[in-house]
Design the sequence.
């Protein structure tokens, strides 16, 4: 099986874990965006989903090279910083809920494994010439149809998730309780 196809399958795994974690646990069960003490964690999640949008576009939808490929690497580094910040916030952010549940820890670990492996494989799949600054921004060979189709689905999903995260930033969602 082609490396990029495996990367895409792992990206699907990340998306499934993210849907359970983000939509069910973060938004519905805990409503992190509603509580003052967990709102900063919601901001970290917003930054992460905003980083996902160009990453999916640059690595799974389009077959990029040169400066666009290096832009993807830069955004990935930013996302790692956002994730580190998110992790540092979780203890205090989740005190009201008794901390993270075992199930949520497991979801976070699986999601992170799928995401890291997907992005690593997508980068490894690039030919050496794509990493040159002078490389074309869009390489001549398009991604396999499966990869680009899933890429578009993930791209649109990330945009919708990003819009929801931005919507939840509105102060009307914060409760007065600590």
Sequence:
């Amino acid at each position: 099986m082609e490396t990029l196809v495996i990367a895409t399958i792992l990206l699907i795994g990340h998306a499934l874990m993210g849907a359970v974690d983000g939509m069910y646990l973060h938004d519905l069960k805990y409503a992190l965006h509603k509580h003052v003490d967990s709102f900063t964690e919601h901001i970290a999640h917003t930054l992460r989903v905003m980083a996902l949008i160009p990453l999916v576009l640059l690595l799974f939808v389009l077959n990029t090279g040169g400066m666009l490929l290096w832009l993807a690497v830069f955004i990935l580094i930013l996302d790692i910083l956002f994730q580190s910040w998110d992790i540092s916030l979780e203890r205090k952010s989740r005190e009201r809920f008794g901390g993270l549940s075992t199930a949520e820890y497991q979801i976070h670990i699986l999601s992170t494994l799928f995401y890291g492996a997907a992005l690593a494989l997508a980068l490894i799949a690039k030919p050496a010439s794509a990493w040159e600054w002078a490389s074309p921004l869009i390489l001549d060979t398009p991604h396999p149809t499966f990869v680009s189709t899933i890429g578009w689905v993930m791209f649109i999903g990330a945009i919708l998730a990003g819009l929801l995260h931005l919507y939840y930033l509105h102060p009307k969602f914060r409760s007065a309780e600590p």
Remarks:
- Residues 66-93 form the longest helix (28 residues).
- The chain has a mean pLDDT of 95.
- Residues 29 and 155 are 25 Å apart (CA to CA).
- Residues 3-173 form one domain.
